[in-house]
Amino acid sequence: MTNHQGVVETARLVRDKKATASQTLDDCIERIRSGDSKTRAFMRIDEDSARLQAKTVDDAIAAGQDPGPLAGVPIAIKDNIVMQGRESNCGSRILEGFVSPYESTATQRLVDAGAVLVGTVRCDEFAMGSSTEHCAYGSVGNPWATDHVPGGSSGGSAAAVAQGLVPAALGSDTGGSIRQPAALCGVTGLKPSYGRVSRRGLVAFGSSLDCIGPLTRSVEDSAAILNAIAGPDKYDSTSLDSLPPDYLSGLSDQKPMVIGIPRQHRHEANDPVVEAAVEEAKAILESKGATFMDVDLEMTDHGIATYYVVATAEASSNLARFDGIRYGRRAQSQPGESLDDLYARSRGEGFGPEVRRRIMLGTYVLSAGYYDAYYKKALQARRLIHDEYKSVFQKCDLLLGPTTAEPAFKIGSIADPITMYLCDRYTVGANIAGIPAISIPGGFKEADGLRLPVGIQLQAPFLGEPTLLRTAHMLQQAGSHHLASPVGG
Amino acid sequence: MTDSNSHKLTLDETRHVAKLARLQLSDEELESCRHDLIAILDHVATLGSLDLDGVEPMAHPGDRTNRIDPDIPGESLTQAQVLAMAPATEGPFIAVPKVLGGDGDSA
């Protein structure tokens, strides 16, 4: 039992009184209960609080009040975004049983817009991973081939939307964690400009890189969610002060465009299907009047190295707060044990191998004697990456390329951390530079009886979301890849 | 940049990093971590090929400076909320091992 009714469509039916929020939620919960065993995307359904939110919407409609633009839309939330009174685990044992005393700004804004937060979905531990295999509570299957990964770290968010369990999910993107799973599951994933969406309540991984964004089937739905969650927030000093435009109404604007294709993203390692997807998108946009040029992003080869120093340095500092003292899981105290020993044991037991590896790397690159050799150099490389984008965007309005080099791989097939990190080769640049980027379905690789989606990525200058969304929408209006559904889900 | 061949992380150095990171790891976990860190640091060493002389480090996108809010007290968590989150409590306190004096003195 699946339902691929989107965000805008669901809200319209509820607002027009053709459906109630409560019935929409009942149907959604039923879909999750009967379908989730296929992918295990969901950590939990927050039935009681979701029912209250749905009732609030129905009551508002009955009273003749405006229930909000997302009225009755069920949305799943990545397990690293906190909601007041609800459990959030970040895919980690160290936050087992943690119930948040406060609400993230993004989820609060969804509720204020009439959305219903139906439950939380699995992710890699502390959003560190590209496969959702690093979730301490079990991995997630790709709805197109359940023995394949859904990508990560927002793998549960992407799988839940692709499977039609929910019309939308929130994810977070530090180096590609929204766009890569969106590509691998055949859905639309948007990473907004840094600071466009408040990070309050997003458990910090790399604070100068982290962004919350939507995973949906269509770009239109993505714009509808961004409309609700974007904007300044007094609780996040890095949120942008400027007011966001209306992304939804901007989708139909027509403007001539110059689009660059980075030569370094047309790599020989790319699957031919991925290359064909980029060519197909180029042909569609050309037919709509866009002009194309080849550009160079020569720093692409240095993206992963830069990213893994900056992100792990910030992570080692951010994750220092998980000490087993004030909240989360504490190791069993032993007689005569010092406070330091208790910290170290709680953390050693509570964090999984990938998180420990990144904390170790981050601690090393920040440690005395290595700071200049690694961390400072990475920050300088970051400047070069940022400046290179800036100069490329003086010649073109957008960049087009693949989101990943290949479709989803089999669960358990990549053991080497570097190989896993290189999955994010084309996505980390946007986080390093702080610019917006989107992955939309680009086609399918059909082999060995499987049909696996691939994604194409558009990147725009800082705060270029209107152009980014408009162009991605144009591609979806001319094509149908985003409408395809996996068998039985 | 450290030359990838000039220095390989030793087990003692790995143990030191784990201590700084406050992570208790078994010898086996330390060795596995050391192996992975060497591979990652070798990859990171490719940054050494860049000419970074005079390049201003960039810690944050947009180079925003600190935002100063007016100094007005707002709502904060209640004592009950804080205690409810703590894994161990004693009355109105969060319980921890002895910090000063005795065998557990880590100061």
Q: Helix amount of chain B, in percent? A: 25-40%
Distance between the termini of chain A: 7 Å
The fraction of residues assigned to DSSP E strands of chain B is under 5%
Number of strands of chain A: 11
Query: What portion of residues of chain A is helical?
Result: 25-40%
What's the CATH H-level superfamily name of the largest domain in chain A? Amidase signature (AS) domain
**Continuous helix count of chain B:** 3
Strand % of chain A is 5-15%
Sheet bearing the most strands of chain B, described? 2 strands, antiparallel
Strand order of the main beta sheet of chain A, please? 1-3-2-4-6-5-10-11-9-7-8
Low-confidence stretches of chain A: none
Give Rg of chain B in angstroms.
Answer: 23 Å
Query: Mean pLDDT of chain A, rounded to whole units?
Result: 96
- Label the structural class of chain A: alpha/beta
Order of helices and strands of chain A: HHEHEHEHEHEEHEHEHHHHEHHEEH
Q: Given this structure, which CATH class of the largest domain in chain A is correct? A: Alpha Beta
Most extensive protein-chain contact, per-chain counts: A-B, 73 and 59 residues
Write the layout of secondary structure elements.
The complex is a heterodimer of chains A (489) and B (107).
Chain A: H1 7-15, H2 21-35, E1 42-45, H3 47-62, E2 74-78, H4 105-112, E3 116-121, H5 155-162, E4 168-173, H6 179-185, E5 188-191, E6 211-216, H7 219-229, E7 258-262, H8 272-287, E8 291-295, H9 300-318, H10 339-350, H11 353-366, H12 371-392, E9 398-402, H13 417-421, H14 428-433, E10 437-447, E11 450-459, H15 465-478
Parallel strand pairs in A: 2-3, 2-4, 7-8, 7-9
Antiparallel strand pairs in A: 1-3, 4-6, 5-6, 5-10, 9-11, 10-11
Helix pairs in contact in A: 2-3, 5-6, 7-15, 9-11, 9-12
Chain B: H1 11-20, H2 27-44, H3 79-85, E1 89-90, E2 93-94
Antiparallel strand pairs in B: 1-2
Helix pairs in contact in B: 1-2
